[in-house]
Amino acid sequence: MTTPDITLYTSGTQNGVKASVVLEELGIPYKVKQVELLKKEQYEPWFLKINPNGKIPAIVDHGKEDFPVFESTAIAIYLCENYDPEEKLLPKNDPKLRSQVIQWVMFEASGIAPTQGQSNFYCRYLPEKIPFAINNCAKEIKRLYDVMNKSLEGKEYLVGNKFTLADAMSYPMIRGHFFSGIESIDEFPNLKAWVERIDTRPATQKGLNVPVPDKMKEYRENPEKLEEFEKLIQSFFKEKQT
């Protein structure tokens, strides 16, 4: 395997840190370019050449002719397929285990991420609160959490009882449940224990602090900072709508 030469383009969001968590867990060296979302750098021509959808995260693999990869799930699978010879996060030789990991990765990508993303919008970004939308998102988030909670019964991790991509992709979203309007996950004891277990993984924690110190931790520990962020992001969306 050639030495990786990768640049990560990201921001300190729940979705953005998924790529850095995977990079850190795999021990892949990489460079970081912070994309300033509120300055709309993601829509600048140079970034749209990397990701035509104008979203973070994205990577460029310079060792493979500057090959760009966008979408956090696609990035994670690409990194595992090219730079995970020890099968740390994604099995290669056991088709059933591999399928189980990918199933949970897709569960996050099609369920947890978009639902919490919608909830973030209604709970934090939108100045006018819409109770029906907030409650509907919360109901679906809890349903998804219950699926995971039941699946974690008697297990430390989702697949094969070891930390895999299935865990790495869901963790950044679920640890930020409060940001998405779910104040507590005490009713999901297996899920809560799973979060606390991953909290102790040094590589994952390092990934959460890329490209800036862990924002979810800051907002959880300092409500004033969360309030400041809400005012800033609500102002941004007001401007965007005009």
From TrEMBL:
Where is the GST N-terminal domain positioned along the sequence?
3-87
Lineage: superkingdom: Eukaryota
Q: Which Pfam families match?
A: GST_C, GST_N
Q: Which InterPro entries match?
A: Glutathione-S-Trfase_C-like, Glutathione-S-Trfase_C_sf, Glutathione_S-Trfase, Glutathione_S-Trfase_N, GST_C, Thioredoxin-like_sf
Q: Which residues form the GST C-terminal domain?
A: 94-219
Protein family (similarity comment): Belongs to the GST superfamily.
Identification of the protein by name: Ure2p
Q: Which organism is it from?
A: Rhizophagus irregularis (strain DAOM 197198w)
